[in-house]
Amino acid sequence: MASTKKGQDDEPIVKSAKRVLEIFEYFVENQEPASVNDIVNGLGYPQSSTSALLKSLTLLRYLQYNRVERTYYPTMRVSLLGGWLSDELFSGASLSQIVNDLHKKSGQSVIIGLQNDIYAQYVYVMQPKQSNLPWYLKPGSLRPLCNSAIGRIILSYKSDVEVMNLYRKIYASETTSHKRIDSEKLIFELDKIRHQGYAYTEGSVNPKAGVIATHIPTQFHQPVMAIGIGGSIEVIRKNKTKFLKMMQSVLEPYQIQL
Predict the structure, then answer these.
(1) Going by C-beta distance under 8 Å and a sequence separation of 6 or more, which residues neighbour residue 104?
(2) DSSP label at 217?
(3) How far is 243 from 211, CA to CA, in rounded Å?
(4) Is the sign of the CA dihedral 57, 63, 67, 71 positive or negative?
(5) What ranges in the chain are assigned the alpha helix state H?
(6) pLDDT tens across 42-88, in order?
(7) Which residues are bridge partners to 231 per DSSP?
(8) 91: pLDDT confidence band, cut at 50, 70 and 90?
(9) Full set of structural domains in the chain with CATH
(10) Can you tell me whether residue 74 is helix, strand or coil?
(11) 67 Cβ neighbours under 8 A, 6+ residues apart
(12) Which of 127, 126, 146, 151 is nearest to 225 (CA)?
C-alpha cells in the first residue's frame, strides 16, 4: 500500500503523487536537464525510488532521457496538461491553441504524437464529439512508427541507420504480416517525407481512416513531435492540401516563439 502523509486539511497525501509533482516543480525552478543524483540531492529523495519514478515518467513521455548525458528533461506533454488553462488567461500561440484551432477549422480529429520506443504515442487528442470514425482515439494510444503518419514524421528525422535498427525491432515483435512495410519502401517514403514536409497514410492502421501529419518545431532538447489531422479516408483525401495548409498556417506563429 502506498504510504501517505497528512496535508494542511488533515487529508492523506499519497507520497508517490507528491513526489511526481515535486519533480516537475524542481524542473520549473531549475529550468535545465537534471540527473538522478541532481534530483535526489535537490529534493532529498531515496535513490531507488527516484530512479523508478523518473523511468516511469519517461515511459509515459512526460520526461525525455538523454542517454549520453544521463539526464532527464520535461517533454512538451507536460505543458499540454495545463495549456488549456493558461490559454484562458494569456494570449499567444500554444500547442493546445493550435490543436483547438485545427479542430475547429477542419472538423476532424487532431493528434499530437511523440515516440515511445517502437511506437508513436498520441499524447494529445481532440476529436469530434460525434465522430464519423469507428473508434475512439484515447490520449496515450500507441501506433506503429512505420505505419502511422505521425510515426513516419518522427522517423523522417532519424538517420537511415537509426530507422533500420528500429525497423528490425518493430518487426521482430510484429506478427501480423499485412501490417508490414518493405524496408526499401519505407526508406523511400521517408525520403519523400523529408522533401515534401508531410506524411500521408490511408488505411495503414485503421482500414477506414486517413491521416495527414507534419512536424512541430521544438527546441533542441525536446524529442521530435508531430501533429496530424485524421478522419475518414474520403474526407482526408479530398481535403489533404487544405488540411496541410491549415497546419502550416497555425504552426507559423508558434514557430516564431521557439
Answers:
(1) none
(2) P
(3) 10
(4) negative
(5) 15-30, 36-43, 47-59, 76-89, 95-106, 149-155, 160-173, 183-196, 233-257
(6) 898 999 999 999 999 999 889 999 989 999 999 878 877 776 655 54
(7) 210
(8) very low
(9) 4-74 (1.10.10.10), 84-257 (3.30.450.40)
(10) strand
(11) none
(12) 151
| Alpha carbon distance 233, 227 (integer Å) | 17
Residue 221 makes CB contacts below 8 A (sequence gap 6+) with 33, 64, 66, 73
CA 203, CA 233: separation in Å to the nearest integer?
7
The residues with which 120 forms a beta bridge, in sequence order, are 115, 143
Rounded to whole angstroms, the Cα distance separating 57 from 35 reads 14
- What backbone torsions phi and psi does residue 253 show, to the nearest 5 degrees? -65, -30
Higher pLDDT, 31 or 153: 153
Tell me which residue has cell 483547438: 100
In this predicted model, what pLDDT tens digit does every residue of 161-219 receive, in sequence order?
Answer: 999 999 998 888 765 555 678 899 999 999 999 999 999 999 887 888 899 999 998 77
> Which has the closest alpha carbon to 246: 132, 120, 104?
104
Give the separation between CA 244 and CA 239, rounded to whole angstroms.
8
